[in-house]
Predict the structure.
Amino acid sequence: MARFSRQPDDTTRPRPFLKWAGGKGQLLAELRSRLPASFNAYHEPFLGGAALFFELSARRCIPGGAFLSDLNPVLIETYTVVRDDVEALIEALAPHPNREDHFYATRALDPATLTPVQRTARVIYLNRTCYNGLYRENSSGRFNVPFGRYANPTICDRATLRAASEVLKGVDLSQADFQATLARAAPGDLVYFDPPYQPVSATSSFTAYHRDGFGEDRQVALRTAFATLAARGVHVMLSNSDTPFVRRLYADFRIDSVRANRAINSRADRRGAVGEVIVVGGPTA
Ligand SMILES: C[S@@+](CC[C@H](N)C(=O)[O-])C[C@H]1O[C@@H](n2cnc3c(N)ncnc32)[C@H](O)[C@@H]1O
């Protein structure tokens, strides 16, 4: 037996450490098969759970550095702490028990009174133990998802956090609107847009996980950004729900239909396969 072999912990493949509404785990193979043969830097301006970033990192296929951003400041602080302070984070997160009283006491803490490491431990703890693993804030910006009653959730997944920290080293993380990508992306780069989805029906609340929402005007602005980047020689890829509105917006580009299982929905009867599209543009599309 090799005495100095690495712990099983250290060899974990990088993957998302948060459960995130719209997480792209299910679509990875479809997205991968539509990647350009080569690209320089990678940009993901709707970061969420960062499933495609971790997948590309695991395959070591980001040659020119990565720029990850999201409008949600809590999310960006979480990734920053995982990148820069993962051991302190693990120490702060590990003692949290999966108990209802502790969940509500932690949920009630005012984030402003905590350090960045404590805040991040709180976010990951609530994310792993809350109902459906959603991240949802009420109108005053307070996390308001109830306790999930899971038998044995993994609260502190050391191996996944360390693997994520490793591939985040050197990555540019910023809290920004997706439009900031226009100023950053250069010809030959790859941008993957995974916006809050255009609702499939009037009752769908799928776009409600950030208090700023993402209405039709933002979808139109996103289409303009997509077309501007494509015309500049940037490889662009976008996922969205398969609606007539989305198809009209991207009529000038290649639109492929794919099926995705949306696991996160507060109503079990609305879970299941829904139509999604992947739109591809840029030099080789
Ligand atoms: C569908 S999720 C991303 C899912 C992610 N790609 C994954 O694999 O888990 C959409 C993200 O967009 C963010 N967002 C909403 N409006 C935004 C905006 N105007 N600019 C940038 N990010 C925004 C939300 O905070 C959320 O994290």
DSSP finds ten helices and seven strands in the chain. The longest strand covers residues 272-281. Residues 20, 22-24, 45-49, 51, 70-72, 75, 177-178, 194-196, 210, 212, 214, 218 surround S-adenosylmethionine (CB under 6 Å).
